[in-house]
Design goal:
Distance between the termini: 198 Å
Number of strands: 26
Shape: rod-shaped
Radius of gyration: 69 Å
Length: 453
């Protein structure tokens, strides 16, 4: 038997109505003068005879299918996940939604089976269904590529940072913390939960790195950053002067010596090695100011404290604190002239004020009683210390000189020493006597004295 194909030969109606069909013809040897062909259109079987002159005779036979139909392509959408290598591969069956062919076997094929990170999201894929005779049909499906693999976040090992001397914040970046984080596609961002560090962050700080990929997958990893402050304070001091005339009990504080010391994280304490200068020896003293910051760093600097005050005797003890202010060997509490050297404590008028500093005005008592009872036994002229170079003379009522003394010392006890009287070196009788005192400035004082026993 021989087979051959005749397309659109017999009737124009065949070409119009079955334009995509083929007519399968079977018959005898075409070398015969007459041969017949049988064919079918739809389910109607036809038999026709062609004679040697080309006549075409048609007849009805049993149904015999001679047309092959196209397969039916049916698609379905499909979602695929990228792998760790960043690719995804699909099969034609993944998007086949039940394609078929009425006459037998068929094959499936797609125009794209491999996808990468660049194809994230929806992708149109064409499914082609081809039967055994080469007829085919197509459909289109949406293949959605997803990436559900999170990145691998890797951080550096814990490390230490030291604060700047200037006090500026330490600023880090994600790159400082990342230690080779990866993703099957690509990393789109790396962020930290903390970028800046200052004095409030002294010690260990846990810093978290967050890595994001193009699909929005996140991964985190943490490391520890230890912040240290190793910068010592900068100490500024100033010299000061203490005047013990103003206060014998003189104390100072660190604030008196400090002249604006600074530290990058703040000063916690300031202290001095010497605080008390009460009644100390006059002169210069070196003091040390120690400054400690909030993190235990210390620094120190010196300054000069100059102690001044009145020093009458030059012994470097201020007079207010000197037990022997005038340096005469007599303590102030016993010295009748504290501010003037007076080692013999002379007090010619017995007023308790040393002659060297007695400024009492001259005063003459009206009398005295030299009876040896220890009370007014000598004639005492107050203020006589101002007139040490003097002459004192006493006369009786008849004008006779009964007593005379050059440089009188308030020591006349009523005994006559004049040459012109009969009772020389004897006590004068009670009664009035006239005195004359010639002072060093030639001032003459006169008056009456009464001796009484």
């Amino acid at each position: 038997m021989k087979h051959f194909y005749i397309s659109f030969i017999f009737f124009i109606t065949v070409s119009i109505t079955y334009a995509q069909k083929a007519i399968v013809v079977s018959g005898g040897d075409i070398s015969n003068t007459n041969f017949s062909i049988s064919y079918s259109i739809g389910q109607i079987s036809q038999t026709s005879t062609i004679n040697s002159i080309g006549s075409f005779n048609q007849g009805i036979q049993q149904p015999y299918e001679i047309f092959n139909k196209q397969p039916i392509a049916v698609c379905k959408n499909f979602t695929s996940q990228l792998g760790v290598n960043g690719t995804a591969t699909i099969l034609a069956t993944d998007i086949d939604g039940g394609s078929s062919d009425m006459e037998g076997e068929f094959t499936l094929s797609i125009d794209n089976s491999t996808f990468t990170c660049a194809n994230l999201g929806p992708n149109l894929v064409t499914l082609t269904v081809t039967d055994e005779k080469g007829l085919f049909s197509t459909c289109t499906a949406t293949v959605t590529i997803e990436d559900s693999i999170v990145p691998t976040a890797v951080t550096v090992l814990p490390f230490t940072l030291q604060l700047y001397e200037s006090g500026s914040d330490i600023i880090i970046t994600s790159e400082d913390i990342d230690n080779g984080s990866t993703d099957n596609c690509e990393i789109t961002s790396m962020t930290l939960d903390k970028y800046t560090f200052d004095c409030n962050d002294i010690g260990e700080n846990i810093v978290t790195l967050t890595v994001a990929d193009a699909a929005g997958n996140l991964a985190t990893a943490s490391t520890t950053i230890t912040i240290q402050d190793v910068t010592a304070p900068i100490v500024f001091t100033q010299n000061i002067t203490i005047d013990l005339n103003d206060a014998m009990n003189a104390t100072i504080s660190a604030g008196d010596i400090d002249d604006g010391s600074i530290d990058n994280c703040g000063i916690a304490t300031m202290s001095l090695d010497i605080l008390d200068f009460s009644c100390t020896t006059l002169g210069d003293y070196t003091v040390t100011l120690t400054v400690t910051d909030t993190n235990g760093n210390t620094a120190e600097e010196t300054a000069i404290v100059t102690v001044i005050g009145d020093d009458l005797d030059g012994d470097l003890i201020t007079d207010a604190c000197d037990s022997d202010m005038d340096g005469d060997g007599v303590d102030n509490e016993n010295d009748n002239c504290v501010s003037t050297v007076n080692p013999d404590q002379e007090d010619v008028d017995f007023n308790g004020i040393g002659d060297v500093c007695d400024g009492t005005d001259v005063s003459f008592p009206q009398g005295f009683s030299p009876d040896g009872d220890g009370i007014r036994d000598t004639y005492i002229i107050e203020g006589l210390a101002q007139h040490g170079d003097n002459t004192f003379e006493v006369y009786n009522r008849w004008g006779n000189k009964v007593f005379g003394s050059k440089f009188y010392k308030n020591n006349w006890d009523g005994i006559s020493n004049a040459q012109s009287v009969l009772n020389k070196d004897e006590k004068l009788p009670a009664g009035p006597y006239f005195y004359v005192l010639t002072a060093s400035n030639n001032t003459v004082y006169k008056g009456w004295i009464y001796i009484n026993y």
